[in-house]
Amino acid sequence: MESRARASRPQEARREDCRRFWAAIASGRSSEDAAVEAGVSPSVGVRWFRRAGGMPPTHLSPSSRLPSERYLSFAEREEIAILRVQGHGVRAIARQLDRAPCTISRELRRNVARRHGAPQYRATTAQWHADRSARRPKPAKLAINPPLRDYVQDRLAGMIAKPDGELLAGPKVVWKGRRAVHRQNRRWARAWSPEQISRRLRLDFPEDETMRISHEAIYQALYVQGRGALRRELTACLRTGRVLRMPRARVRKGRSFIPSEIMISQRPAEAADRAVPGHWEGDLIMGLGSSAIGTLVERTTRFTILLHLPRITGHEQEARVKNGPALAGHGAEAVRDAITRAIVSMPEQLRRSLTWDQGAELAQHARLRIDAGLQVYFCDPHSPWQRGTNENTNGLLRQYFPKGTDLSLHNSGDLEAVALALNTRPRKTLGWKTPAETLDQLLQVNDTQGVATSG
Question: What does this protein do (predicted)?
């Protein structure tokens, strides 16, 4: 009986172990290393981390405030227990601790241990009683506000659709409560991030203060067990797909076909400051079996176009011919044609430049410049940050097209649906407007200016 009682009442020493554990986690340590640093076994550290969803309890986080001095500390409770055993009275104990006698009397009355015979005062038991009484649990906001919960869940886990409105289910995914999910199919959803959802609420419901929630509250609803409202399986709709929160805490050679006059240093200043739309960044995302999808992102609006690069007939059946067509579907000719088809469908004012890395898939850049009317520039070697907009977008796309999966399984309709999902997600850098909304506004402004000029 006594062992069960002690097991259910965590000692203050264990509380300090937890505090040291989460401080080590915040510094970037793994669960196992943080546990060793806190003085507990690695398996205990892993259990603490998973039970909390990777998020430190608010009263144990490094940023939490220390308890107010108006409350008795654990050290004071230990002193009370010692003095009580020595036979000191309430007023004597109060003088020793420089506390009011009523404080000591109330402590001995409220937080005494009563399970085994005569009441006895123990510091650990008293601290457990005090912590339990100090709790102020309240229901999660998503649990008591159905319209808000429906809004959050629809934008987090709602199905994506093709441009004609047909819903697209995507691959069938069985949720697994594991950390590593990047090497398997992921759930397709609208997949707005919690911050996008939180910020967009202010635009969609400017007058309704009940439709407000912080992105941190959404993360807690997803990661912390017992919060209710949102199921843990919905973490598969997040971009990273992690079921646990991770604390905050790599080379290609240059290509001889790129002359110095088309390097990124020669790109006009209007492209660098994003003041004028029509400047694009592009790249390929690669998958299993040399499968690939092309990506084009407009720098000003973040509008995204996905290029379907199907494999050529005979792939993995015919021997590859030297200097022949790339049967995998992402050779220079195939990429040039795909970019041309996508770009010529855009208004002329949106066809100014394209920045690419130094991959051989754009070896026919001179022909592309003629066919698409698009000036092409290349980044410096080993400098992916020079295409930061595209790199960020490729990271978002990995939610739908994970590394290590066969990208050739997705047809052009699938790519249109994913592009539509990204283009209708609010972006922080756009003031929580969507890329599609921003692009439409820019085109309307240009049309109005054109009419005024011609008049």
Answer: Required for the transposition of the insertion element.
Helix (H, G, I), strand (E, B) or coil at 433: strand
What would the mean pLDDT of 82-95 be, rounded to a whole number?
A: 89
**Residue 54: both structure tokens together:** 């990777």
Q: What is the structure's pLDDT at 163?
A: 86
Structure tokens at 232: 């843990």
Residue owning tokens 């986690």: 25
Residue 303 has pLDDT above 90, yes or no: yes
Evaluated on CA atoms 412, 417, 420, 425, the torsion sign reads negative
Distance CA 400, CA 191 (A): 10
Residue with tokens 């855009």: 346
Please provide the DSSP assignment of 284-350 as one string. EEE-GGG-EEEEEEETTT--EEEEE-PPPTTTTTSPPPTTS--TTS-SHHHHHHHHHHHHTTS-GGG
Q: Evaluate whether 285 touches 397 at the Cβ level (below 8 Å).
A: yes
3-state secondary structure of 282: strand
In sequence order, what are the residues at sequence separation of 6 or more whose Cβ sits closer than 8 angstroms to the Cβ of residue 390? 281, 282, 283, 295, 297, 355
Residue 222, CA distances (Å) to 42, 234, 376, 413 in order = 25, 7, 43, 31
Return d(Cα 289, Cα 328) in angstroms, integer.
8
Q: At what angle do helices 12-26 and 42-51 cross, to 10 degrees?
A: 80
Maximum distance among all alpha carbons in the chain?
Answer: 100
- The span from the CA of 413 to the CA of 416, in Å, is 5
- CA 29/CA 25 separation, integer angstroms: 5
> What is the distance between the alpha carbons of residues 11 and 127, in angstroms, rounded to a whole number?
8
| pLDDT tens track for 45-87 | 888 888 777 777 766 655 555 566 778 888 888 889 899 888 8
Condensed to tens digits (0 to 9), the pLDDT of residues 334-358 reads: 999 999 999 998 988 899 999 998 8
What the block records as the tokens of 418 is 């994913």
State residue 91's pLDDT score: 92
Q: Mean per-residue pLDDT for 87-102?
A: 90
Neighbours of 207 (CB within 10 A): 5
Determine how many CB atoms are found less than 10 A away from the CB of residue 133.
10
427: which DSSP letter? Answer: B
> Which amino acid would we find at residue 395?
G
Backbone phi and psi for residue 6, each to the nearest 5 degrees, phi listed first: -65, -35
CA distance 38 to 437: 50
* CA 234 from centroid of its chain's CA atoms: 13
What global pTM score does this model have? 0.60
d(CA 31, CA 48): 8
Residues 329, 291 contacting (CB under 8 angstroms): yes
